[in-house]
Structure formats: C-alpha cells, structure tokens
Amino acid sequence: MEDKYNKETVTRSLRQIACAAALASVTLIAGAHGDVTPQAVDVSTLKPLGKDWLVSNPYRKDKEAIRIGDSAYNQNCARCHGLGAVSGGIAPDLRYLPEGDEGDEIFMQRIRDGASRGGRVYMPPFEGILPQEAMWSIRAWLETVREE
Known about the structure:
The chain is mainly alpha-helical. Helices cover 51% and strands 5% of the residues. The protein folds into two domains: 1-32; 38-144, Cytochrome Bc1 Complex, Chain D, domain 2. The chain has helices at 2-32, 63-76, 78-81, 100-113, 132-144, and strands at 115-117, 120-123. The radius of gyration is 21 Å and the shape is elongated. Mean pLDDT is 86; it is low at 25-33.
C-alpha cells in the first residue's frame, strides 16, 4: 500500500510540475509580444522617397524592394504576424490585406501609428523608427504573398 501511495504522489507531483512549466511558457510567449526591439533596415539600394509620406506604394512589384521587404518583415514583423505572413493568432494575418491603394492605406496607417486599446499596446508604432522606404518595401513583399 505504501508503494502505491508513493507512486501516486510522484505521479501527481510530476503532473503539477508539467502544468506549471506549460503555464510559465504560455505566460512568457504572451508577455513577449510587447518586448520587440525594432531592427534597422538597409534601404540604401532603393530610390529615396523624401520626407513627405506617400499614399500609394512606389515600390509595387520592384524586385529590390521586395527582397528588402522580405528581410525587413522577418526582422520586424514575423514575431507577431508569423513567418511568411501566416499568423499564428497573435496578430492579423497580413496575407489578406486588400490589394493596391486600399491595402496601402490600411497598412501605412497601422505600421505608422501602431494599435492600442484601453492603454494596451497591440502593435507598436514604427513611424520615426523605420523610414518610409522600409515600410513600403515590407508592403511590396506582402503583396507577393497575398491571398484572397
């Protein structure tokens, strides 16, 4: 009888440890969303866009911009929006942004201003951190993975 009691106690303890570890992992993942440090994007090979913000993507279908945008997305966006822009549920799936100018407007408003509700930051603002060339290159890349 004592052996059975010891086995049950050990089994219960192992289950409790496993549950605590799983809960700690989920807490770390959820808390990590706001701790993203933006990474610099080298846009030196792109045509400079100036200080005035454009309303339409000047780099649409530009191979160099798409290459830069792919890298910039992976460094700055994939942690929340998912690799290949396939969201795992933390943030919106960017493959479904509308095409053309409509999608440009939505994308630029969100990347520039970020998103917060009730004092909680859901996406940090990138204006002043990434140049518009980097933002538009990310948008150009996103259009290459777009789905209906």
